[in-house]
Amino acid sequence: MGYRIIDINQMPQAEFVAALGGVFEATPSIAEQVWCQRPFEDLSQLHQAMVTIVEQLPEASQLALIRAHPDLGSRVQMASASVKEQASVGLDRLSPSEYEQFQQLNATYQAKFGFPFIMAVTGQRKETILAVFAQRVCNDPVNERQQALLEIGKIARFRLDMLFA
């Protein structure tokens, strides 16, 4: 059984942050800040409040949030939510050639933008992810930073949906 909106609205801040601090990768400060905006009518309102906080962060803080995400298809230690999301689409079971493709794209993308490629992979296929990856590496830095933040918002919604399922 997951959380109910009525329950999180009544939580003390520490408990609220413990419950929702992982919604945005390694950035529990977003949950800390949104706690002050309670009560929330529903999950959508909570999600939008969190996204608004991200949108209002200084650029350096937004970049720190983006950089907190792991490379897709990498074999590094990452948050359990990221592990589950990547495993759900088979990124933990890449063939050697797929792994090499991801590593090459990760390196090219990181060199160009200075942060990892972010995509909400839940419900996607490896082939689709690779195609989007190859396309987005051609974007300009300003648009790609905005796209990364949009994808982070999608990831946050998927994570909230799981917590409230």
Written overview of the protein:
This protein is mostly helical. The chain has a single domain, classed as Orthogonal Bundle (UraD-like). 64% of the residues lie in helices and 0% in strands. The chain has nine helices and no strands. Helix 2 crosses helix 3. The longest helix is centred in the C-terminal third of the chain and has 23 residues. The chain is globular and about 50 Å long. The N and C termini lie close together (7 Å).
Layout of strands and helices, then pairs:
Layout: H1 5-10, H2 13-20, H3 29-35, H4 43-56, H5 59-67, H6 80-88, H7 96-113, H8 126-136, H9 141-163
Helix pairs in contact: 2-3, 3-4, 4-9
Q: What is the terminal separation in angstroms? A: 7 Å
At the fold tier of CATH, the topology name is UraD-like
Strand content: under 5%
Domain module tally: 1
Order of helices and strands: HHHHHHHHH
Number of strands: 0
* DSSP summary: helix tally: 9
User: Averaging pLDDT over every residue, what do you get?
Assistant: 94
Outline the biggest β-sheet.
Answer: none
Q: Which outline best applies?
A: globular
Helical content band: 55-70%
CATH architecture: Orthogonal Bundle
**What structural category arises from helix and sheet content?**
mainly alpha
Radius of gyration using CA atoms only: 16 Å
The CATH H-level superfamily is Oxo-4-hydroxy-4-carboxy-5-ureidoimidazoline decarboxylase
